[in-house]
Design a protein that fits this description.
There is one protein chain. This protein is elongated. With 740 residues, it is an alpha+beta fold. The strands form five sheets. A six-stranded antiparallel β-sheet has the order 8-7-6-11-10-9. The protein has five domains: 153 residues, GAF domain (Beta-Lactamase); 154 residues, GAF domain (Beta-Lactamase), CATH 3.30.450.40; 102 residues, Beta-Lactamase, CATH 3.30.450; 93 residues; 156 residues, 2-Layer Sandwich (Heat Shock Protein 90), CATH 3.30.565. The chain is built from 21 helices and 23 strands. Helix 2 packs antiparallel against helix 3, helix 2 packs parallel to helix 6 and helix 15 packs antiparallel against helix 16. Strand 4 and strand 5 form a beta hairpin.
Length: 740
């Protein structure tokens, strides 16, 4: 006979009359516990918040029968979590000192998004939490609930409950109650943080005011003591173990510690840090950026050498704040811990920058005062070692100082040169101009630059370039002038050689251009010569007649004279263009000059089937220029325009030359063709020497145009016309314009 299986309900103990079920009783007890917790935090002071949180973590752990509960808050800038409050049953390890995001990446992301994490066993976690599973199994966590701490919509940390001995089921009701606990803790921690921040702010402002008051008028002798006292105050204020102020070497390769403070028992820092040992950190500090880490492992992969260098220094947490304004700091303030980790908040970094400004001002003032004391001697030492000739003048225009370079050049003593004695060495032809420039600039308090000849110790006059600037102090008071001179005789010689070579090149270009016009010029000469020959033969026949036809011979002789003058004009134009010589600036009729060029090119234009149109302003004022060189510029531009239209049908080949006023003292010449225009990449280089896009071209035509125009004090430029084609323009000063 089979035994009857008891119904499962028969095994459950019956509740006595008037007695609540065990689950309901536990719920009531937990609700009472939560009410007591809420009441405990209503009026808790900021200083008691930490103790109260730990006490309530213990009560909740014991009530739920779990093993550990921890409050985590962010650590540094890497989303790591640092346990700030924790309680664990005896025999269970405390929470790790930090939870790097790499070991719990999935959980860290969930918490940062404000999502709770709950699992009864590790296997319930999703596949993307594989790294988290391995970590949890390694530390022995069997079940866990982690709830974000949220204040005003921002996640400020997490509250975790863990079972280490056995797996446990977390009911939705229980998790909901734990959310209430998280809200109470988050609110209490935020109140504590705000109160602590306000207290810190007040203490910091008092500290900063104290430092400012002591440093505002500190003497150079006391500056070091005040800086080190300030480092001690800041180090103790932030709970650091060591504080230093370092200054960078001129080449930024070394950071030398000039002031430091450390707690008793803490190792002194090395006197200097080579930048090569800390390349990543040094690069950011020199860019004016702050470097901070809670632990060296927080540094990125690119800072491997820096991490290795920090190891022997025993630094746990570190912050470096650049010293000085702008992107080129002169040093840095450093705070370190060697015993415990420290989070360097944005607020703290900003406060350290303010302290850095105080220290930077002290250092700058000390340097300035030292510079004032040593300035005159240093200036004289540097001036005497300078390769330039240096002079100084007082407010009365008299010279008060000449350096060794000047005295060695002139071969005279300082006493001979002081006052206006220096003027005795100026070339007589340059003296009045030199003194006029000097006095005029001095009276106007303006910088001046002039060239004059100065007698050297061997009696030779050398060209000098002299630059002077006013010395004006605060308040606008003029203390005088300081100037420097260099011998430019060799430069003058090179300039003359350059001008000679430019003239040679321009003449060569004219010869080359005439060579290009050989066929046209030959036609222009052959035509009158042929007519002369024909007329001479006809006259010979008329004279041989009986009786001779005298009147017809006279008409033929008149034609011969006309053709001779025409041939002579062609030859004169050719000789003028072939002639060599420097610029001879004389008043010129620009319209007449252009008409001569157009007449010379008439046959070539007809040969190329180009219609040349002249639109010349009849009221154009005379210009100051060299007739031959200006004709060369116009000739080159007209040839360039004709060549640009070789691919066009003959009916479309049109070249226009225009003149017009371009201002009260300037006229403008414009040469416009109907070719294909100038591409943008070519337009920027079109006037460069030897730059050409023509097969077989020399690249000198437009370059010579620019040289000629600039030598006349004008400018030349090119562009594309709206209707197509290219337009070249240049300007020339009128006779009324002041010479350049």
């Amino acid at each position: 006979m089979k035994a009857r299986r008891a119904h499962p309900a028969a095994k459950r103990p019956r509740a006595r009359a008037g007695q609540a079920a065990p689950g309901l009783t536990a719920r009531f007890r937990f609700e009472a516990l939560l009410a007591e917790l809420s009441a405990a935090f209503v009026n808790v002071s900021a200083g008691e918040v930490d103790r109260e949180i730990v006490r309530w973590l213990q009560r909740i752990v014991e009530f739920l029968g779990i093993d550990r509960s921890t409050v985590f808050q962010p650590a540094g800038e890497r989303d790591d979590l640092r346990p700030t409050h924790s309680w664990a049953r005896p025999g269970f390890p405390p929470a790790p000192s930090v939870v790097p995001r790499e070991v719990l990446p999935w959980a860290t992301r969930q918490i940062s998004r404000g999502k709770a994490i709950m699992f009864s066993r590790v296997g319930e976690l999703p596949a993307e939490a594989a790294r988290d599973k391995a970590t949890l199994l390694q530390i022995g966590t069997k079940s866990n609930v982690t709830i974000p701490l949220v204040v005003a919509g921002s996640v400020t940390g997490a509250l975790a409950f863990a079972s280490m001995r056995r797996e446990r089921r977390w009911s939705p009701e229980l998790v909901g109650r734990l959310h209430l606990v998280a809200r109470v803790f988050a609110s209490a921690l935020e109140r504590s943080r705000a109160a602590e921040e306000n207290g810190d702010l007040l203490r910091f402002e008092m500290l900063r005011a104290h430092l400012s008051a002591r440093c505002v008028n500190v003497s150079p002798a006391e500056a070091d003591r005040e800086i080190e006292g300030g480092l001690r105050a800041i180090g103790e204020f932030v709970g650091a173990d060591r504080a230093t102020l370092s200054e960078f070497s001129a080449d930024s390769r070394t950071s030398r510690i000039t002031h430091s403070w450390r707690r008793q028992g803490v190792q002194a820092p090395p006197p200097a840090f080579p930048s090569a040992h800390f390349p990543w950190v040094s690069e950011r500090i020199m860019r004016g950026e702050v470097v901070r880490f809670v632990r060296p492992a927080d540094l990125p992969d690119g800072a491997r050498l820096d991490r290795e260098a920090y190891g022997p220094l025993g630094i746990v947490s570190h912050v470096l704040v650049p010293l000085g304004a702008g992107a080129s700091p002169v040093g840095a303030i450093s705070l370190s811990t060697v015993r415990a980790e420290r989070v360097w908040t944005d607020t703290l970094v900003q406060r350290l920058r303010l302290v850095g400004e105080i220290f930077a001002n002290v250092l700058a003032r000390r340097r300035a005062e030292a510079a004032l004391r040593e300035g005159e001697a240093r200036f004289r030492l540097m001036a005497d070692a300078s390769p330039f000739m240096i002079w100084m003048a007082g407010p009365d225009k008299g010279c008060t100082y000449f350096n060794k370079g000047w005295l060695d050049f002139t071969g005279r003593t300082a006493e001979q040169e002081l006052g206006e004695g220096w003027a005795e060495g100026v070339h007589p032809d340059d003296l009045q101009r030199c003194l006029g420039t000097y006095v005029q600039a001095f009276d106007a308090r303006e910088k001046f630059s002039m060239e004059y000849r100065l007698r050297r110790h061997d009696g030779e006059y050398r060209w000098i370039w002299d630059i002077g600037v006013p010395r004006v102090v605060s308040g606008g008071h003029l203390e005088g002038y300081i100037g420097s001179c260099i011998d430019i005789t060799e430069r003058k010689r090179l300039e003359e050689e350059f001008l000679r070579q430019r003239d040679e090149l321009t003449h060569f270009a004219r010869v080359t251009t005439m060579g290009e016009l050989t066929a046209s010029l030959a036609h222009d000469l052959n035509q009158p010569l042929g007519a002369i020959l024909s007329n001479a033969e006809a006259a010979e026949l008329l004279l041989a007649a009986k009786p001779p036809a005298i009147e017809e011979v006279r008409a033929i002789l008149a034609d011969i004279a006309k053709d001779g003058r025409r041939g002579a004009q062609v030859i004169r134009q050719m000789r003028a263009l072939f002639r060599k010589g420097a610029l001879d600036l004389q008043p010129q009729d620009l319209n007449d000059l252009i008409q001569d060029v157009a007449w010379l090119m008439d046959t070539d234009a007809r040969t190329r089937d180009v219609t040349v149109t002249l639109d010349l302003d009849p009221a154009l004022p005379p210009v100051r220029g060299d007739r031959i060189h200006l004709q060369q510029a116009v000739l080159n531009l007209m040839l360039n325009g004709m060549e640009a239209m070789t691919k066009l049908p003959p009916a479309e080949r049109s070249l226009a030359v225009r003149t017009r006023p371009a201002g009260p003292q300037t006229v403008e010449v414009e040469v416009e063709d109907q070719g294909g225009g100038i591409p943008g990449e070519i337009l920027a280089r079109i006037f460069e020497p030897f730059y050409t896009t023509k097969p077989g071209g020399m690249g000198m035509g437009l370059s010579i145009v620019r040289s000629i125009v600039e030598a006349h004090g004008g400018r030349v430029w090119a562009g594309n016309s709206l209707e197509g084609g290219a337009t070249f323009r240049f300007t020339v000063p009128t006779v009324q314009a002041e010479p350049a």
